[in-house]
Design brief:
Elements lengths: L1 E7 L23 E6 L5 E5 L12 H13 L8 E3 L2 H4 L13 E3 H11 L2 H12 L2 H14 L22 H12 L5 H4 L3 E4 L4 E4 L4 H4 L3 E9 L3 E10 L2 E10 L2 H18 E4 L11 E4 L5 E2 L1 E3 L5 E4 L6 E8 L2 E2 L7 E9 L2 E10 L8 H15 L1
Parallel strand pairs: 12-17
Antiparallel strand pairs: 1-16, 2-3, 2-10, 4-5, 6-7, 8-9, 9-10, 11-15, 12-13, 14-19, 16-18, 18-19
Helix pairs in contact: 1-4, 1-6, 3-4, 4-5
């Protein structure tokens, strides 16, 4: 037998756009654009999103991602010092004017990349991590492949124009989403103005949305004559974070207007409804013939569900649990299911699993238990 409990709330990993009647999209002037909700990866708007284009300094999203991942796995420390090579110091374009042999901390180099889009800082970091820029670019392309960026190839770590350096709005959204999954990067991508070299050199964010768009969390702008004006812009409001990618806009104001328009569209029409929290206890399942009388359960996955704002209040979740289970019980064993619904439509099904193992009683222990129960009845 199974027991059912109907609770208000939601739980899902992904809601595809085919399940929603899409609101009218805004007009985008740029030739390529995409809007993605970060937690689910749902695409809310796209325009030529898979067309290969030069990304300019938006490339540095991948450079920052590899840097942050190296920090989090312990390969790098924020206070580690990086020595600038002759080659790194020779980078033109956006820079912090590193001198050959100059030492700068990983923290200040990462800040310079995120805020001022410094090419010399990118190359210095790349050489420190991989021994050479070429070696680092190999890592960039490998990471892009792992993320499913099928229409991307990097030729450098900065975004300088090159025939074999290209990506798409969709692929940029993928790597931006991955970068934003690392909370520490927001400490850098949300800086408006700061300094390095003990206050001697000022930094000003190339992403003007950081100052002028409420809730901006990042990520990176770019410009070259070949790429035009590009941006991967992220913002968070009311628990929902959006990523708007604009490629090849004709001016910086048009780039920012397109990005703002897409973000406004997303925030006005969609909502991420809260998940069943891991802290919220579900009813335990009774265990027969086990060393414990019951076993706790939890959702196998964490995630979120994206719906149109007008439908958010109508989302429910239905929990179905086993009436009981016979030992032995393995940790992670499926004991039920959580169904997320919008009306009669099932949006997702999430397994409910045992949080710990429960061993089976031995034959002698079972006999003693039966005898004890019999004597209690007498």
């Amino acid at each position: 037998m199974m027991k059912k409990i109907l609770l208000c709330g939601v739980f899902a990993l992904l809601l595809t756009m085919s399940a929603m009647a899409a609101p009218a999209a805004p007009e985008v002037m740029a030739p390529s654009a995409l809007l993605m909700e970060r937690s689910t990866g749902t695409i809310l708007y796209e325009k030529n999103a898979h067309e290969r284009m030069a990304p300019a300094s938006v490339t540095k999203v991948m450079t920052m991602l590899l840097t942050v991942e190296a920090i989090e796995r312990g390969q790098l420390g924020l206070q580690d010092e990086v020595v600038t090579s002759e080659y790194a110091a020779s980078m033109g374009g956006s820079q912090i004017f590193l001198e050959p042999g100059e030492r700068m901390t990983v923290q200040d180099l990462l800040k310079s990349i995120a805020v001022s889009s410094a090419n010399d800082a990118c190359v210095a970091m790349a050489e420190h991590l991989a021994g050479s820029e070429a070696g680092f670019v190999e890592q960039m392309n490998a990471r892009a492949a792992a993320l499913g960026m099928e229409n991307t190839h990097f030729a450098n770590c900065c975004g300088l124009d090159h025939e074999e350096h290209y990506t798409t709005a969709y692929d940029i959204a993928l790597m931006s989403r991955e970068l934003l999954s690392h909370e520490m990067i927001r400490e850098y991508t949300t800086i408006w103005m700061d300094t390095v070299r003990d206050g001697a050199f000022g930094l000003s964010n190339t992403n003007k949305l950081v100052r002028f768009y409420d809730g901006t969390t990042g990520v990176k702008t770019g410009y070259t004559s070949r790429a035009g004006y590009c941006v991967s812009a992220s913002a968070c409001r009311e628990g929902m974070e959006l990523i708007a990618v604009i490629l090849h806009a004709d001016t910086s104001p048009h780039r920012n207007a397109d990005a703002s328009g897409l973000l406004n569209f997303g925030f006005a029409n969609y909502a991420v409804v809260s998940l069943h929290s891991a802290e919220e206890q579900l009813a335990p399942v009774p265990v027969s013939l086990g060393t414990a009388a019951e076993v706790c359960v939890k959702p196998e996955h964490e995630g979120s569900v994206l719906v149109e704002k007008a439908q958010a209040a109508d989302v429910t979740q239905e929990i179905t649990l086993a009436e009981s289970v016979e030992a032995p019980v393995e940790q992670g064993q499926r004991l039920g299911v959580l169904r997320c619904r919008l009306g009669e439509e099932i949006l997702a099904e999430i397994p409910l699993v045992a949080t710990q193992s429960v061993e089976r009683l031995g034959t002698g222990e079972i006999y003693e238990g039966l005898l004890r129960n019999f004597m209690m009845k007498e």
